[in-house]
Amino acid sequence: MSKLGKVLVAMSGGIDSTVTAMMLHEQGYEVVGITMKTWDYANSGGNKKETGCCSLDSINDARQVAVNMGFHHFIVDIREEFGDYVIDNFVDEYMAGRTPNPCVLCNTHIKWSALLKRADALDCEFIATGHYATIAEHQGRKFVKKAKDTHKDQSYVLWGLSQECLNRSKFPLGPYTKPEVRKMAFDWGYADLSKKAESYEICFVPDNDYRGFLKRRVDGLEERVNGGAFVNTAGEEIGKHQGYPFYTIGQRRNLGMAFGKPMYVTEIKPETNTVVLGDVADLLRNGMTVRGVNSMKYETLPDGLEVTTQVRYNDRGTLSVLKSTGSPSEIGVEFYANVSGIAPGQSAVFFEGDDVVGGGLIQGSAIR
Predict the structure, then answer these.
(1) Is 124 an annotated catalytic residue?
(2) What is the total count of domains within the chain?
(3) Which pLDDT tens digit goes with each residue over 133-192?
């Protein structure tokens, strides 16, 4: 038994999780690898070959690393858990006129739950993943910090992790850049892995056609929603659309018709199958409400706390102040400068410098 302890490493077969396992093994941890089968793309009716973390090739790649390094490896089927929660939520959110973020939901509600359950069964004190982030502590509470590599930092997608998860989690890649990780893979004899391409697609929509996925998933969807009205910000009808679930806030391209000038989706009204279009200025908001809040660095999010709020993965963030709404699961956000394209259903994450204070899901109401 290792003095450092036993760690269950989530291995997708990709370079990041593989280097994570190798690093911990080299440091002297007793490593156990686990690969989670979350989805069969063939079930979605798509026409693209299955790739990424759920493919047979990726599972075999993960197992081969474990064999080479001499530690145990397990494959766990969590397709039922994943489908019931992540995919159903994905569909429900679009049908409610919101824009979901399934990777955040999967990380915080499915993968960590599955990892902790299997870690307990295998007597592992810790779990580890290949996320680019670090874990720090403040007054006895664990929280996520940004990674060294600002281009790869994944702290935004980890806002939902509970204290139980953080107390047992390790992110070994946080102090390293992606080129450094690639070099480690190369130096350990995995030259092919060091050149392996990364996938940025949703695992169950690898052709990136979420409209097609929704059509296949929801019986009679096209007939139900096709032909709704495009309206301007004054409420005047200016055209017909293909169905409100097929549009997102801030969308400009693929509207299906020309308007003589750039038009953007500014609001989606599922109850009337209406999509509101406006100018780029109509996307600006000076505040919003966030639901399902997880306070990470502090026991509760302090009223009046000044933070940088990030409203999408590649967003640089905007200086803002948090305002209590009287509900522990909800927080108001007032921006110091107007923010464009706030999409209900997406994640809002609050930072103090590099520290993740907490986060939640953007509500449907936003103040212009």
Answers:
(1) no
(2) 3
(3) 999 999 999 999 999 999 999 999 999 999 999 999 999 999 999 999 999 999 998 877
